[in-house]
């Protein structure tokens, strides 16, 4: 998983899976936004593999700081779960509440289950300079199997910084997932996969976006596939 690009359909309702199948490669189950997430996992009989996320309130989600780890470790044992998202700040011990031991224990448990760890960073205010983005990706790559970085673009140059950082981190051998939030950075969701980004996120239902600036699922599928495979349809012979 994540050797190739994976389009994850984000949802708080696993019953939505059949509607995502045509376009998505996986589901991102936002446990922090879900009703009875563990019951939903027990009842899940879909075909798409699951990435589980239980985003802490201090990182823009709705889960409580420590309690969320119990739910995540229960989630790991489900066969459908192939990856777990853990915030880089939790893994490095820089989160507001001291949860490093919980985060690293979860990572161990994930590895024992053969579940990939996505070390994630979100910046809801801005997009730092390219060099800082590259450093964040290297830090996240040192902690997880995939380094995920989502920042807020206020201008086109922020999108350029994210694309350039994606290229640099991929060239340095890191497995990354990158995107900008917000309107000026929307196109990065389609473009960074060309430069190595391995995960894209889009809501199953456009009304239930899990981040600002997401494309509808089928739109992102078309854009990503078109840009990656577009070369095959290019006009040659000139
Ligand atoms: O971290 C991410 C990326 C995301 O924030 C986005 O910008 O698409 C959406 C979230 O659901 C996911 O957990």
UniProtKB/TrEMBL annotation:
Domain of life according to the entry: Archaea
Organismal lineage: Archaea, Methanobacteriati, Methanobacteriota, Stenosarchaea group, Halobacteria
Keyword Lyase belongs to the record: yes
Alphabetical list of CDD domains matching this protein: DHQase_I (cd00502)
Pathway linked to the protein: Metabolic intermediate biosynthesis; chorismate biosynthesis; chorismate from D-erythrose 4-phosphate and phosphoenolpyruvate: step 3/7
Active-site residue numbers: 122, 148
Protein name per Swiss-Prot or TrEMBL: 3-dehydroquinate dehydratase
Catalytic activity: 3-dehydroquinate = 3-dehydroshikimate + H2O
Molecular function terms, GO-annotated: 3-dehydroquinate dehydratase activity
């Amino acid at each position: 998983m994540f050797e190739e690009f994976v389009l994850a359909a984000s949802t708080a309702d696993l019953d939505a899976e059949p509607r995502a199948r045509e376009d998505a490669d996986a589901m991102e189950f936002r446990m922090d936004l879900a009703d009875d997430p563990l019951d939903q996992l027990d009842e899940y009989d879909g075909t798409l593999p699951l990435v589980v996320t239980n985003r802490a309130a201090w990182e823009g989600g709705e889960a409580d700081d420590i309690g969320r780890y119990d739910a995540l470790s229960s989630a790991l044992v489900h066969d459908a779960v192939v990856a777990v998202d853990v915030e880089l700040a939790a893994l490095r011990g820089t989160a507001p509440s001291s949860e490093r031991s919980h985060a690293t224990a979860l990572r161990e448990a994930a590895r024992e289950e053969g579940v990939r760890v996505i070390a994630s960073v979100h910046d809801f205010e801005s997009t730092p300079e390219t060099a800082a983005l590259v450093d964040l990706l290297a830090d996240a790559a040192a902690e997880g199997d995939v380094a995920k970085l989502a920042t807020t673009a206020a201008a086109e140059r922020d999108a350029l910084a994210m694309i350039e950082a994606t290229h640099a981190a991929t060239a340095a051998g890191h497995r990354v997932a990158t995107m900008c939030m917000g309107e000026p950075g929307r196109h990065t969701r389609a473009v960074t996969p060309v430069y190595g980004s391995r995960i894209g996120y889009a809501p199953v239902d456009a009304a239930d976006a899990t981040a600002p600036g997401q494309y509808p699922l089928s739109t992102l599928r078309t854009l990503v596939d078109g840009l990656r495979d577009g070369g095959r349809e290019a006009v040659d012979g000139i």
